[in-house]
Structure formats: C-alpha cells, structure tokens
C-alpha cells in the first residue's frame, strides 16, 4: 500500500512537469520547426527534474513545514517581543540566501550589467529586504495590526523610491521580489508565521498568518531600490 501511495505521489509530480515540457517540445518541433537538441540529455534531465522535485516536496513536507510550524508556536515562549522580531529577520535573511531562483537572477544581472552589479551584492540586498519584511510581518502578527496599515505605507515608500532609483534597478527590484518566493522561503516562513498566529491571543491565523510572503516581497523591492539609489553616490 505504501509503495502504491509513493508511486501515485511520484505520478502527481510528473503530471505537473509534463504539460509545460510537452508544450515546449510541440512548439519547438511544430511551430519553430527545429529539432530537439541532444534528446538523450533532455530525457535524462526531465527524469531527474521529476524525481528531484518529488523528493524535494516530500522532504519539505516532512521536515521544514512541521519544524517551522513548531518553532512558530514556541516563539511565544520568548520573553520579549523584539526578540521574536529579530529572530524573524535572521530567519528570513538566511532562508533567502539559499533560494535557487534568486541566485539565477543575480547571476543574470551580473552578466547583463557586465559586472557592474555583482551577484553577491544583489543577493544580500534582497536577503536584507526579505528579512525586514519578515520581521514586519511577525510584528504585525504579535500586535494584531491590520494588513492595510502595514501595506499602504510600504507601497508609498516604494513609489517614492521608484522615482528616485535608476530605471534598471526598478525592473530588477520587481523581479527580485518574485525570485524570493521560492521552494525554501514559502513553506518555511509561512509555517512559522501561521504557527505563531495560532498561539498569539486574539490573532486569527487566516487573517494574520497569511500575507507574510507578500510583505517579504515588498521588503525585497524596497531594499533593491535603496541599493540602486546608493549606486548613484
């Protein structure tokens, strides 16, 4: 029975990868009329991606999500609220450093800018912004602050920074925010936030636990725009 369940889970993962692969193959062969280069490597890579994604999702559900949820529920044991906020910043910062999508984006930016924007500088700038957004989100949960009172001021700050920052950094900031919502940050940080919101008195997990990833993305936008402004000097 367990073997059958495992095969079903693997098939579900394969079903999520098959449509996009089939679409690209058909478009390449039928519309662009170009052959698939190195078909053997493509098939091997497809199989590796299916198995890799399957094992990663299984590992996340068995480790990061329950651990993050447990940590979130026990954060309330800390004596001072500011220590929870500091912890959230550190968690968000280091979790962002391992995001593969962010690393890929940073390397592309470094290549296109001919080294003017080093990939390590961009990665750390995004991590700082993500950590700051995570800290703000946890502060919101601890004090039951409505989302609008947090989001609107941040959006106003982003509008001002967008006007002041170089145009290329505005575009990079938007993509940097998206690249942080990857396979590490979402399950881990959301689990911590929901875990905390289930313990905090008068906090509704549905209202306060969710939205944390959006705040972290806004924080990443702010930090990259600030980095762009600093490059002027």
TrEMBL record:
> Which keywords accompany this UniProt record?
Membrane, Transmembrane, Transmembrane helix
Q: Cytoplasm as a keyword?
A: no
User: Which segments does the entry list as coiled coil?
Assistant: none
The record's listing under InterPro entries reads: UmpAB
Which residue spans traverse the membrane?
Answer: 12-30, 42-61, 82-102, 122-143, 150-166, 210-230
> Which superkingdom does the taxonomy of this entry point to?
Bacteria
User: Would you tell me the protein name for this molecule?
Assistant: DUF1538 domain-containing protein
């Amino acid at each position: 029975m367990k073997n059958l369940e495992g095969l079903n889970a693997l098939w579900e993962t394969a079903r999520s990868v098959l449509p996009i692969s089939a679409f690209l193959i058909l478009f390449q062969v039928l519309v662009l009329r170009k052959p698939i280069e190195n078909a053997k490597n493509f098939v091997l890579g497809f199989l590796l991606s299916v198995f890799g994604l399957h094992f990663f999702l299984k590992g996340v559900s068995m480790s990061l999500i329950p651990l993050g949820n447990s940590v979130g529920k026990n954060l309330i044991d800390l004596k001072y609220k500011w220590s929870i906020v500091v912890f959230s910043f550190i968690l968000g910062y280091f979790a962002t450093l391992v995001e593969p999508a962010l690393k890929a984006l940073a390397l592309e930016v470094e290549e296109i800018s001919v080294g003017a924007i080093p990939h390590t500088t961009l990665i750390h700038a995004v991590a700082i912004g993500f950590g700051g957004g995570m800290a703000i989100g946890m502060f919101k949960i601890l004090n039951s602050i409505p989302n609008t009172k947090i989001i609107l001021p941040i959006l106003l700050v982003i509008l001002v920074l967008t006007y002041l920052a170089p145009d290329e950094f505005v575009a990079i900031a938007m993509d940097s925010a998206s690249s942080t919502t990857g396979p590490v940050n979402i399950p881990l940080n959301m689990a911590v936030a929901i875990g905390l919101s289930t313990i905090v008195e008068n906090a509704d997990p549905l209202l306060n636990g969710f939205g944390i990833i959006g705040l972290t993305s806004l924080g990443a936008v702010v930090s990259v725009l600030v980095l762009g402004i600093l490059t002027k000097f």
